[in-house]
Write a structure and sequence with these properties.
Layout (H helix, E strand, L loop, with lengths): L6 H13 L2 H8 L3 H15 L4 E3 L4 E3 L1 H25 L5 E7 L1 H6 L2 H10 L3 E7 L2 H9 L5 E5 L8 E6 L1 E6 L10 E5 L5 H12 L4 E6 L3 H9 L5 E4 L7 E4 L11 E7 L6 H15 L14
Parallel strand pairs: 3-4, 3-5, 8-9
Antiparallel strand pairs: 1-2, 5-12, 6-12, 7-10, 7-11
Helix pairs in contact: 1-2, 1-3, 1-4, 2-3, 4-6
Length: 297
């Protein structure tokens, strides 16, 4: 390879993978589909390898394409961090960020790490608890901002993204075959619990709550032990867990809304900068899980 890799080409390449097609990728990067196609031809010429296996309906990455994808994500991350570091205002201060432990563990580490490298003088304190408790803490002014699961009784927050909900079971067990269906759920007031029970009721399926856990760790323990079926956001699906669907006799679930809330008054520049950064970063990332078929629909 005699030429340097072009960041713009890599950004389009990643957009194709993340959005599932050429047209949708073009909308993300602000280019027409023919321009996107030309960019991918140019990228393949530079690396000297075919990046996509294609047929009439689908595009999928070749082995070389999968290797380049990892490099491309790393290069884009470093590029964007450097750009953010020198373009962002020089801010400092203390921010208390509230979020459920699930989001703190599965979707925020990379985002917070990147923000901290760009804004080394901002101190971030995390408060992890369920969304219903975070909302109350915001109303009391105890935390500055919160990334949480939207609920009907909350005042409207900034929609960050929709996260798919999935039925899950342990890889070495089949609790979905038991009657009534054994469930591991969060306590009353949980949106996950509400959607699960509502979907089962609408489908006329019998169920029994076998485990009530106040955290994702408790739900994972019940699922991995084979005690019950549960409902996870797709971002929390890990090795050892199977996703279940209609083919397993379970009803489809609606997505949840990840929302950003700010306290009523006195939001600092540092807190606002962090809130905007989280919303922009998570809103531009696909939900974690199997890569979508790379096909325009």
């Amino acid at each position: 390879m005699s030429h340097d890799l072009d960041i713009a080409l890599l950004r389009t390449f990643v957009a194709i993978v993340d959005t599932g097609g050429l047209t949708s990728a073009g909308k993300r990067v602000g280019r027409t589909q023919p321009a996107v196609t030309h960019q991918m031809k140019r990228l393949e010429e530079i690396v000297g390898h075919t990046l996509f296996d294609s047929n009439r309906r689908h595009l999928s990455l070749t082995r070389d394409g999968e290797v380049l994808l990892e490099f491309a994500r790393a290069m884009l991350r470093l590029n964007d961090e450097a750009r953010e570091r020198f373009a962002a205002p020089d801010i400092a201060g203390h921010v208390t960020l509230g979020t459920p432990d699930l989001y703190a563990s599965y979707i925020l580490p990379d985002v917070l790490g990147s923000f901290s490298r760009s804004h080394p003088n901002v101190e971030i304190q995390l408060r992890c608890t369920r969304s219903i408790h975070l909302h109350a803490a915001l109303e009391r002014g105890e935390i500055d901002i919160a990334l949480m699961t939207n609920q009907p009784e909350f005042r409207r927050g900034e929609l960050v993204r929709l996260e798919p909900l999935v039925w899950v079971a342990g890889a070495g067990s089949e609790p979905e075959r038991r009657k009534p269906l054994p469930l591991a759920v969060l306590p009353q007031g949980s949106v996950y619990r509400h959607h699960a029970l509502e979907a089962l009721g609408a489908a006329g399926l019998q169920w029994s709550v076998r485990s009530v856990c106040d955290s994702i760790a408790g739900l994972q323990a019940a699922v991995l032990a084979g005690l019950a079926v549960s409902v996870f956001p797709r971002c929390a699906v890990t090795p050892g867990v199977r996703c279940l669907d209609e083919s397993d006799g379970l009803p489809k679930l609606p997505p949840i809304e990840l929302v950003m809330h700010r306290k009523h008054e006195g939001v600092s520049d540092a807190a606002e900068q962090l809130a905007q950064y989280i919303a922009a970063q998570l809103g531009d990332k696909p939900a974690r899980g199997p890569s979508p078929a790379l096909a325009d629909k």
